[in-house]
Amino acid sequence: MDYVVHDLGRQPKGATAVIKLSGSAANVRLMDSSNYQKYKAGRNPRFAGGLAKHSPVRLAIPRSGHWYVTVDMLGLRGRARSSASVEPPPLPVLRPSNAGSLTQIRHEPPPYSIGRAESVRDVFISHASEDKEAVARPLAQYLQEAGISVWLDVLELRIGDSLRRKIDQGLANSRFGIVILSRPFFEKGWPQYELDGLVTRYVTGQQNLLPIWHNITKDEVMAQSPSLADKLARSTAQYTVEEIAREIADVVGESDT
Q1: How far, in Å, CA of 34 to CA of 67, rounded?
Q2: Who's near 31: CB < 8 A, 6+ residues apart?
Q3: Averaged over 220-235, what is the pLDDT?
Q4: With left for phi above 0 and alpha for psi between -120 and 50, is residue 41 left, alpha or beta?
Q5: DSSP summary character for residue 17
Q6: Residue of 108, 194, 220, 243 marked catalytic
Q7: Does the pLDDT at position 109 exceed 60?
Q8: Which one of 52, 67, 120, 227 is separated from 79 by 20 to 30 angstroms, measured CA to CA?
Q9: Domains and CATH numbers, the chain
Q10: Least confident window among 90-94, 107-111, 176-180, 181-185
Q11: What's the pLDDT at 187?
Q12: Strands lying side by side in the sheet with 174-181
């Protein structure tokens, strides 16, 4: 299929993609990274946009992430020609201040202070340190590029943090739990602590569990945890980390609709 693609890069929620068309009509699609890969592969992606008969076309970016715009003439005559730019989100509405009232003063707590509220993340990645560079870190990067917010220890922990407290906060404030199952995972204490929390939240319906098998067989998983061996998983022996990340991004994205 002949089409033009505009790589908008990573954009914040609320920005606007502005597409200028040279012809009278074209199919315009705004897609995140995972759906653009589907589009390239000829599958059915989820997108914002449609048949545009007027220029410029303005499409709001629904969430932060890496975004693409494609322009094609499928079902139309002519060639797809276009240009694209991005307008940043609007500034907050300016509100009049009352100089005589202390209620107008906003106090921001220092970062990483004890007891501060934790933002909700899309996914929590539980893994053994031996699998960090091969699976966990690139998986987090691919998910972030797809607009998915990620809890990963190296992204969250700072000097002086309580490891148990930070893990508990991450578990309690994530919608999906990704577990990278491997031989080192079942040999370590902290991954088992995280797994106990993830399974508890999964059983109570508070969280979805997404297992990934890395250099481990089903029989080995069965010997350690029959319930996990029975759950649908993805293996790095059959899929690349990027392919697994795309599928996870689709699952997380579908839960938002």
Answers
A1: 9
A2: 39, 45, 46, 47, 48, 67, 68, 69, 70
A3: 78
A4: alpha
A5: E
A6: 194
A7: no
A8: 67
A9: 3-87 (2.60.120), 121-255 (3.40.50.10140)
A10: 107-111
A11: 82
A12: 150-151, 121-126, 174-181, 208-213, 234-235
